[in-house]
C-alpha cells in the first residue's frame, strides 16, 4: 500500500483530514466536506471500514474524495476501484457479501441475491406485519416523552430483519447491538466490538445450519430470505453455506443501523421546522419527496473505501495503483455545483434523484426500496395516530463514534396524541 503524500500539501488541509475523526466533525462533517471540496483529493485519512476494530486493526492512509464528479467517477469505475477490502479481510469481522466483491464474482452474487430479494419478499411479505408492529410501537409511545432513537427508530429496522430471515422476533435487540458494533459508529471498546463480531457470526452459523438441516430432513420451512439464499440458483450456480451466513450478516449490518439513522433523521428535519409535520400529515403525497430530500441532505451513509487497481487521476490528482481512497457520498450530496443551496432542506428539488446516498452502478444498494418502505410506513402511522411532535434539536445529540454514518444517538421528543 503506497504511503506517499501530496507534494506541497497545504498543512492546514492535512490538519483538517487528521481531525476528521474528532467527535465534533463526526457530529457535523459538512463544513469540513465543503472545505475539502475546494481542493484536489487530499491524502492521509486513517479511518476504519465496517467490521474493523479501532485500536486493533491498522487503517491504510486514504485519499479523501469529496466532489460529486469525483465520487461519481469512483462509483462508476469498479474496474479501477476495487471493493475487495484487505483491511476488513484481515480483521476479526466477517466479510460482507456484494459490498466487498468485484466482478465477475460480484455479478454472480448479485444475480443470486436478486433471485432471493424479490419484490414479494421485501414488500408483500412484510408490509402488513410491519404496519401492525409500527402501529403497536406508536400506540405504546403516543402521549409520552421518549427517546425516539431508542423506542422507535432503533426498533423498526431490526424487526424487519427478523421478518426477512425468519428469526425469532425477540432477537431484534441482539441484531441492533451487533450492527452498531460492526458499523463502527457507536461507542464500544475494542474487545466489545470483537466480541460482537464473533457473536454475530456464530449466531448466523447456527441459524443457517438449522435451516439447512430442516430442508435436508424434508421439513416445511418458511419462504423467507434465508431459505431463498439457500435454494437460489443462477445459471447452475448457488451459494455455499458460508456465503449464505455472510449474506445474512450483510443484510443485518448494512440494513439495520443505516435505516435506524434514516428514520431518526426524518424526525430531526421535523423538529428543525415544526411546520413539516402538519404539511405531510395533510398531504401524504409529499412524504416520498420529503424522504428523498432527507436522504440527500441528511443521508446516513457517509463514505466507503476502495483500493485502486491501476494508476488513474481523480479531480486533477494522480493516484497510483495500490493506493486507498475514501469517497464521501454525503459530501457529494452537498456539492454546490450540483445541488443549489445544498445545506437547505428544499422539498421538490428537480434533481434530488441524483443523490448518491445508496451508491450507483453495480454496487447500488439492494436494500434501498426496503429502507423507503420502512420510512413511509413509520411516517404514515405517526401521521394517523399523532396530532404533532414536540421537541427541540437542542436536546438531541448526534452519534460521534465513527465517520461511517450521520445520525442521532439520542432524539428526545413527545408524540402528541390526537385525543385531547
Automatic annotation (TrEMBL):
One of its GO terms (molecular function) is monooxygenase activity. Pfam families: p450. Its cofactor is heme. It comes from the Bacteria. PROSITE patterns: CYTOCHROME_P450. SUPFAM superfamilies: Cytochrome P450. Keywords: Heme, Iron, Metal-binding, Monooxygenase, Oxidoreductase. The keyword Iron applies. InterPro entries: Cyt_P450 (IPR001128), Cyt_P450_B (IPR002397), Cyt_P450_CS (IPR017972), Cyt_P450_sf (IPR036396). Belongs to the cytochrome P450 family. This is Monooxygenase YjiB.
Amino acid at each position: 500500500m503506497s504511503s506517499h503524500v501530496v507534494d506541497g500539501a497545504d498543512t492546514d488541509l492535512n490538519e483538517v483530514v487528521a481531525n476528521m475523526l474528532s467527535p465534533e466533525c463526526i457530529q457535523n462533517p459538512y463544513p469540513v466536506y465543503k472545505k475539502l471540496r475546494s481542493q484536489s483529493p487530499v491524502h492521509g485519512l486513517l479511518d476504519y471500514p465496517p467490521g474493523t476494530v479501532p485500536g486493533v486493526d491498522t487503517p491504510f492512509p486514504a485519499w479523501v474524495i469529496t466532489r460529486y464528479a469525483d465520487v461519481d467517477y469512483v462509483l462508476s469505475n469498479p474496474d479501477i476501484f476495487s471493493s475487495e477490502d484487505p483491511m476488513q479481510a484481515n480483521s476479526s469481522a466477517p466479510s460482507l457479501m456484494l459490498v466487498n466483491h468485484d466482478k465477475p464474482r460480484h455479478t454472480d452474487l448479485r444475480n443470486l441475491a436478486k433471485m432471493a430479494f424479490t419484490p414479494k419478499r421485501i414488500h408483500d411479505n412484510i408490509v402488513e406485519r410491519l404496519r401492525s408492529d409500527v402501529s403497536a410501537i406508536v400506540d405504546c409511545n403516543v402521549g409520552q416523552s421518549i427517546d425516539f432513537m431508542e423506542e422507535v427508530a432503533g426498533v423498526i429496522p431490526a424487526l424487519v430483519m427478523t421478518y426477512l430471515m425468519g428469526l425469532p422476533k425477540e432477537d431484534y435487540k441482539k441484531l441492533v447491538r451487533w450492527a452498531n458494533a460492526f458499523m463502527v459508529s457507536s461507542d464500544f471498546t475494542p474487545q466489545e466490538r470483537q466480541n460482537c463480531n464473533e457473536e454475530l457470526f456464530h449466531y448466523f452459523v447456527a441459524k443457517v445450519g438449522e435451516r439447512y438441516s430442516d430442508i435436508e430432513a424434508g421439513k416445511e420451512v418458511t419462504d423467507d430470505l434465508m431459505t431463498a439464499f439457500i435454494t437460489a440458483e443462477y445459471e447452475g450456480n448457488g451459494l455455499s453455506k458460508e456465503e449464505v451466513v455472510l449474506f445474512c450478516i450483510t443484510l443485518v449490518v448494512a440494513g439495520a443501523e443505516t435505516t435506524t439513522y434514516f428514520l431518526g433523521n426524518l424526525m430531526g428535519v421535523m423538529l428543525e421546522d415544526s411546520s413539516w409535520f402538519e404539511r405531510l400529515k395533510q398531504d401524504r403525497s409529499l412524504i416520498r419527496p420529503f424522504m428523498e430530500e432527507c436522504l440527500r441532505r441528511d443521508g446516513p451513509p457517509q463514505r466507503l473505501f476502495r483500493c485502486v487497481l491501476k494508476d488513474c487521476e481523480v479531480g486533477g490528482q494522480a493516484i497510483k495503483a495500490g493506493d486507498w481512497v475514501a469517497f464521501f457520498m454525503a459530501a457529494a450530496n452537498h456539492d454546490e455545483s450540483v445541488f443549489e443551496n445544498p445545506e437547505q432542506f428544499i422539498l421538490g428539488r428537480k434533481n434530488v434523484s441524483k443523490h448518491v446516498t445508496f451508491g450507483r452502478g453495480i454496487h447500488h444498494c439492494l436494500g434501498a426500496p426496503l429502507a423507503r418502505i420502512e420510512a413511509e410506513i413509520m411516517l404514515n402511522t405517526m401521521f394517523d395516530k399523532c396530532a404533532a411532535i414536540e421537541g427541540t434539536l437542542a436536546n438531541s445529540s448526534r452519534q460521534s463514534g465513527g465517520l461511517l454514518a450521520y445520525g442521532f444517538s439520542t432524539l428526545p421528543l413527545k408524540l402528541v396524541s390526537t385525543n385531547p
